[in-house]
Amino acid sequence: MSLLQLCNVSKEYRLRSKKRRLLKPCSTFKAIKQVNLSLEKGECVGLIGESGSGKSTLARLIMKLEPLTSGEIFLEEQAVSGRQLKDLVLYKRIQLVLQDSSTALHPKMKVKDCLLEPIKNFFPSEKEKWDEMLARVVELVELDFTYLTRFPHQLSGGQKQRVCIAKALAVQPDVIIFDESIASLDYDSQVSIIKMLKTIQVKEQLSYLFITHDLQSSRELCNRVAVMYEGEIVEMFDQWDVNQLKHPYTRSLVETLNVNVIR
Ligand SMILES: Nc1ncnc2c1ncn2[C@@H]1O[C@H](COP(=O)(O)OP(=O)(O)O)[C@@H](O)[C@H]1O
Ligand SMILES: [Mg+2]
After folding, report:
1. Residue 262 pLDDT > 50, yes or no?
2. Which of 9, 10, 13 for mutating ligand 1's site (highest number of atoms within 8 Å of CB)?
3. pLDDT per residue as tens digits for the range 13-61
4. Ligand 1 center to residue 123 CA distance, Å?
5. How many alpha carbons lie under 13 Å from residue 100 in its C-beta half-sphere?
6. To test ligand 1's pocket by mutation, which of 11, 57, 61, 98 has the most ligand atoms within 8 angstroms of CB?
7. 3-state secondary structure string across the chain
8. What is the pTM of this model?
9. Which of 14, 138, 195, 209 has the most CB atoms in a 10 Å sphere around its CB?
10. Cβ 56 under 6 angstroms from ligand 1
11. C-alpha R_g of the chain
12. Are 64 and 87 in contact (CB under 8 A)?
């Protein structure tokens, strides 16, 4: 079985109507439709699609932040959606890195304390190793140790996002979901963080679900790419060749990318 497996996952939201009558059932919006997706150990799967296609919803479902409407999500043999998998066990194995590092970091906590928080929470009985664990993640995200005594507002956007990635790594998860994690950074920061993520992934044998609307970054990082369109995965590919793509939406996306690459 795959490390992470989504089987016929669907999510419907109830839409509230002002004119709703008591006996009339409220209408629903299908944000995720029968999605099947797997992630193997040490693999990076890209999830691309336009805004509103359901990417973040899927991430929230995997993180158990919202209940599924139907389907099942397995982490190895265990059902994520079931009660048997406690949230703490899930977060020990899957971490989520969001786009906005400012809200993810407490403004009054120094970088060192931000990073020690997950270490203390997840490894309470290994106090003698806390400093070593801290040094490990700081080195992995290539952050200078002098930044440990700084507050988030004293860091650049790229440095803050490195701290968020280090927080996720501190838990020593198997899977990290990046939801547009580098989207708001400048081009140079994006390039260096993608390079760093690749190095970390190989070194630590991590699995990534890399959500983005930017094809170029998924091309650099991902082994396979799933394309979401209106809540469905319409295509899965591992070759960046327009001629091998089936769905018109993917073809138009990749054609745009090829034009940009030639330029
Ligand atoms: N809590 C909610 N209630 C109703 N609709 C929602 C809710 N959350 C997301 N949606 C809708 O689900 C669709 C997918 O949203 P989202 O997963 O955020 O897309 P993406 O991350 O691909 O931009 C959107 O149309 C959005 O409006
Ligand atoms: Mg989103």
Report:
1. no
2. 13
3. 988 776 666 666 678 999 999 999 999 999 999 999 999 999 999 999 9
4. 35
5. 3
6. 57
7. CCCEEEEEEEEEEECCCCCCCCCCCCCEEEEEEEEEEEECCCCEEEEECCCCCCHHHHHHHHCCCCCCCEEEEEECCEECCCCCCCHHHHHHHEEEECCCHHHHCCCCCCHHHHHHHHHHHHCCCCHHHHHHHHHHHHHHCCCCHHHHHCCHHHCCHHHHHHHHHHHHHHCCCCEEEEECCCCCCCHHHHHHHHHHHHHHHHHHCCEEEEEECCHHHHHHHCCEEEEEECCEEEEEECCCCHHHCCCHHHHHHHHHHHHHHHC
8. 0.94
9. 209
10. yes
11. 20
12. yes
Q: What is the domain range of residue 111?
A: 4-262
Residue 49, ligand 1, Cβ within 6 A: yes
CATH number at residue 187: 3.40.50.300
Q: What is the pLDDT of residues 109-136, one digit of tens each?
A: 999 999 999 999 999 999 999 999 999 9
If one counts the domains in the chain, the total is 1
**pLDDT at residue 260 greater than cutoff 80:** no
Burial call 104-142: b when 16+ CB within 10 Å, e when fewer: bbeeeebbeebbbebbeebbeeeeeebeebbebbbebbe
- Ligand 1 atom with the smallest distance to the CA of 58 is 17
